[in-house]
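User: Sequence in, structure out. Go.
Assistant: Echoing your sequence, followed by the structure tokens.
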Amino acid sequence: MLRISKVAQGDCTVALKLEGRIVSDWVAVLYSKILEFVHEEKKVVLDFSEVRYVDESGIRTLRRLEEENVQIINCPAFIEDLLKGGHE
């Protein structure tokens, strides 16, 4: 399960806190939620402090989002390694 909570929103930025696992169908839910804000021309900040696991489709999606003005903060080291191209 993945919980997505909006923790802050300003004129140009929205911050979302993610909790749980970014896997299978939850990847599409997350992607859709992020695109809502991207289409409003907002910078999206994702707080990964409570993310415990990201599957391969999640990693691919998050890599694509880096080009969409999305920033990941508080990312656990093992997930950060995967996002930077480490072993999946």
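User: And one key feature?
Assistant: The mean pLDDT is 92.
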